[in-house]
Amino acid sequence: MSERFDALSRIGPVARPLLDRVDAALLAHGAPQGHRIWAHLRRLGTTPADAVAFFVDADAAPLRAVAGRLRGEVAAFRAAPAPTQVRWTGSGAETYAARATAVRDHTDAMTGRLAATASFADDVAAWWDESRAAVAAALAEVLTSAQAITVTTGPATVTTDVLRAAADIGAHVLDAVAAAHEAGHGLLRGGADLGELPFAPGADPQRRVDATVDVHH
Fold first, then answer.
1. Mean local confidence (pLDDT), 8-20
2. Using CB atoms within 10 A of its CB, is residue 181 exposed (0-12), middle (13-18) or buried (19+)?
3. How far apart are CA 203 and CA 217, in angstroms?
4. What's residue 205's pLDDT?
């Protein structure tokens, strides 16, 4: 994994002890009844600490590397087009021309799909970066909150005040996570067609047994 020096790489480890306390309180006692964190917990199926760890571990660099390699493949295909015309005639030439045209059309479609896939990989990498920045901002806010003081300085036995503070912190962090989650699904719904592109050569021209071959020099 490549080195990252963004805000989340710096603030994530600092926030981890607080998030561990939040998780421990919520897992042991649950959130207060009616607290808005419940909607996030049901929808995301993860705790605040685990959700943040997911984004801390994310690295967009491999996706950008893949996008670069795909664009290299596109350039290579476009630099070596399949010839569709030959300097001879006859049924063999017609068959070749039909097959070569099908290969050319398929290659054009394939390079278009590869270019779209490269763009999609870049879009996902940008989503990772934006999500990491949003989660980092949320962590910065909770670390300087009154709720953080309540959770970190509270008694060993979790009180109602500590539990509510933990739920408030968790909800604020999961707000950012939920927004990133929704943006990611929107990216998937609106992304390019990345499915398999089958090759359909079509029917060969009808062979003529009396065809002649005319070779031009």
1. 96
2. middle
3. 30
4. 57
Task: Give the torsion through C-alpha atoms of 155, 158, 164, 167, to 10 deg.
Answer: 110
Identity of residue 136: A
Res 88: pLDDT: 73
Task: Write out the two tokens for 166.
Answer: 């933990």
pLDDT exceeds cutoff 70 at 191:
no
The Cβ of residue 115 has, within 10 Å, a number of other Cβ atoms equal to: 18
What are the Cα distances from residue 141, in Å, to 134, 137, 163, 188?
A: 11, 6, 18, 30
Tell me which residue of 200, 184, 181 sits closest to 107, measured CA to CA.
Answer: 200
Q: Give the torsion through C-alpha atoms of 176, 182, 184, 185, to 10 deg.
A: 160
The tokens describing 211, both together, are 């065809």
The pLDDT of 190-209, averaged and rounded, is 64
Phi then psi dihedrals of residue 94, to 5 deg: -65, -40
Rounded Cα gap, residues 40 and 43, in angstroms:
5
Rounded-to-integer distance, Cα 169 and Cα 172, Å: 5
